[in-house]
Design brief:
The structure is a single chain. Helix content is 46%, strand content 24%. By secondary structure, the chain is of the alpha/beta class. It has a single domain, classed as 60s Ribosomal Protein L30, Chain: A (2-Layer Sandwich), CATH 3.30.1330.30. The chain has a 5-stranded mixed β-sheet with strand order 1-4-3-5-2, sandwiched between helices. Strand 3, helix 3 and strand 4 form a beta-alpha-beta unit. Helix 2 runs parallel beside helix 3. 23% of the residues are buried.
């Protein structure tokens, strides 16, 4: 898993406007298993078990998995939601 700089925030905003984001651990995992994602982004304070699970699933599916410097609360603000978001999937 690679760490991404804050320019990832701008990418998230663009993808959100284009409606290419899936928010949340469960929905992202479901679509990852189905092979419908091209990338998974994890917040810096994401649960270690969740990070391990997504790293493993992404490796098996051949999908890029990256961790950004922002916390889950900050990711929620970037995605214009009133709650914390630890995992974001980018639709293929």
């Amino acid at each position: 898993m690679k760490k991404v700089s804050s320019e990832a925030v701008e990418d998230l905003r663009k993808l959100l406007a284009a409606e290419k984001l899936v928010l949340g651990t469960e929905d992202t995992l479901k679509l990852l298993r189905k092979g419908k994602l091209q990338k998974v982004v994890l917040a810096s304070n994401c649960n270690e078990r969740v990070k391990e699970d997504f790293s493993r699933y992404c490796e098996m599916a051949g999908v890029e998995c990256s961790e950004i410097a922002q916390t889950s609360d900050e990711v929620g603000v970037v995605c214009r939601k009133p709650f914390a978001i630890s995992v974001v999937g980018v639709l293929a």
